[in-house]
UniProtKB/TrEMBL annotation:
Residue ranges occupied by any Glycosyltransferase family 28 N-terminal domain in the UniProt entry: 4-144
Gene name as annotated: murG
Record function comment: Cell wall formation. Catalyzes the transfer of a GlcNAc subunit on undecaprenyl-pyrophosphoryl-MurNAc-pentapeptide (lipid intermediate I) to form undecaprenyl-pyrophosphoryl-MurNAc-(pentapeptide)GlcNAc (lipid intermediate II).
Cell compartments where the protein resides: Cell membrane
A biological process from GO: cell wall organization
Pfam family of the protein (one): Glyco_transf_28
Residues binding UDP-N-acetyl-alpha-D-glucosamine, per UniProt: T11, G12, G13, S199, I253, Q298
Protein name, UniProt field: UDP-N-acetylglucosamine--N-acetylmuramyl-(pentapeptide) pyrophosphoryl-undecaprenol N-acetylglucosamine transferase
Enzyme's top EC category: transferase
Keywords: Cell cycle, Cell division, Cell membrane, Cell shape, Cell wall biogenesis/degradation, Glycosyltransferase, Membrane, Peptidoglycan synthesis, Transferase
Catalysed reactions, semicolon-separated: di-trans,octa-cis-undecaprenyl diphospho-N-acetyl-alpha-D-muramoyl-L-alanyl-D-glutamyl-meso-2,6-diaminopimeloyl-D-alanyl-D-alanine + UDP-N-acetyl-alpha-D-glucosamine = di-trans,octa-cis-undecaprenyl diphospho-[N-acetyl-alpha-D-glucosaminyl-(1->4)]-N-acetyl-alpha-D-muramoyl-L-alanyl-D-glutamyl-meso-2,6-diaminopimeloyl-D-alanyl-D-alanine + UDP + H(+)
């Protein structure tokens, strides 16, 4: 397999799995050429170029509204234009296989590829497949699912394989020491508590963290890494005094695999990639699922983790600085409990996911060429 064209966007949960696949492809064939179809204004336009050596093709696309609306006519027009652009990119790049990892942009890319007879695979990261996967499932050659249960919503798919999320593979290869160093944490024995609200930050979580700041300042035996999300950074940091020595605040973290590998406890949202990362590494967590997602799927994710004993869940409507602090304290200060949660989490992980996906891509590429 020499040329792979990836496509996924909007949030980290769709971009990072695609990049993990790119890395796994290159481990097998360092000469492989990788292309990426994304939107100019999406997070992918910032993240993908940082990987280096990936050709970026941009398309314009917008999502469908669930209600009947005039906007949807415009969406259809944009979709058709995007399909035309993708066909041109595919003709230029000549990929052996096209891979989608979700987000609206995967729609035209995979649809165009399937129509042109180029082998296609889509990865579904969540238990409840999104609109794009449901639409594409009848056109693509393979749907790779991350969590069992997805398959029953994808009855039109020709072939479904269970792989897990490739982000799991990437984090187990990460370097914990480099992660801590990059944040200026030099004490190897100090438990690190990483707080982040998905790839874009979460205001309700930030409010709770602001409320517990006096407690954080006192807990010198712990180190807190607090990722606010780019858009919230200025407002949040304006209220934090800069003399808190056991706290590192960042708007965003680009070397998350290394940072996660050096983390003792994560506090955050329950998106699919985050879950894959925590379970592959065996990091205990306190999840505050986002209630603003389709079919409340993050609560299902968080509940799944809690029921197995790998994490704790606090619903956003019950979140307060005090409640969060108590839960952090219970786990952070009990090393045995952390070890137990960590072991349980690790048993749920799928560290081989990327390799399994690459194997399927090889099979698909070989089928046609
Ligand atoms: C709000 C929303 O709609 N979220 C959805 C979105 O994922 P969303 O991007 O919100 O969340 P995910 O947990 O899936 O992915 C976040 C990714 O960003 C990384 N990260 C995060 C912060 C940071 O500073 N640096 C960094 O690298 C994390 O390590 C992770 O790899 O798509 C997922 C997959 O369909 C869904 O499960 C989520 O429910």
């Amino acid at each position: 397999m020499k040329k792979v064209l990836l496509s996924g966007g909007g949030t980290g949960g769709h971009i990072y799995p695609a990049l993990s696949i790119a890395k796994a492809v290159r481990r097998q064939n360092p000469q492989a050429e990788i292309g990426y179809i994304g939107t100019k204004n999406g997070l992918e336009a910032r993240i993908v170029p940082k990987e280096g050596n990936i050709q970026f093709f941009d398309v314009e696309i917008q999502g469908f509204r669930r209600k009947l609306s005039l906007d949807n006519l415009q969406t259809v027009a944009k979709f058709l234009r995007a399909v035309r652009d993708c066909k041109q990119y595919i003709r230029d790049f000549q990929p052996d296989v096209v891979v989608g990892t979700g987000g609206y942009v995967s729609g035209p890319s995979l649809y165009a590829a399937a129509r042109m007879g180029v082998p296609t695979l889509i990865l579904e990261p969540d238990v409840l497949p999104g609109l794009t996967t449901r639409f594409l499932s009848r056109y693509v050659d393979t749907v790779a699912v991350s969590l069992s249960g997805s398959e029953k919503h994808l009855t039109k798919a020709e072939r479904i394989i269970h792989t897990g999320n490739p982000r799991g593979t990437e984090v187990v290869r990460a370097n914990a020491e480099a992660g801590r160093e990059s944040l200026g944490i030099h004490d190897a024995d100090k438990p690190v508590i990483l707080i982040f609200g998905g790839s874009r930050g979460a205001k309700p979580l930030n409010d709770a963290v602001t409320e517990m700041m006096p407690k954080i300042r006192e807990a010198r035996h712990l180190h807190f890494v607090y990722v606010t999300g780019e858009v919230h950074y200025e407002t949040v940091t304006a209220n934090i005094k800069d003399d808190i020595t056991n706290l590192t605040v960042r708007p965003y973290i680009y070397n998350m695999p290394d940072v996660l590998a050096g983390t003792s406890l994560v506090v955050g949202r329950a998106g699919a990639s985050t879950l894959a990362e925590l379970t592959a590494l065996g990091v205990p967590s306190i999840m505050i699922p986002s209630p603003y997602v389709t079919n409340n799927h993050q609560e299902a994710n968080a509940r799944w983790l809690e029921e197995q004993g790998a994490g704790r869940m606090i619903l956003e409507r019950e979140l307060s600085g005090e409640r969060l602090w108590e839960t952090i304290r219970e786990i952070a200060e009990d090393a045995d409990r952390r070890r137990q949660m960590s072991e349980t989490a690790r048993q749920l992980g799928r560290p081989d996911a990327a390799g399994e996906i690459v194997e399927e891509l090889e099979r698909l590429a070989g089928k046609v060429s």
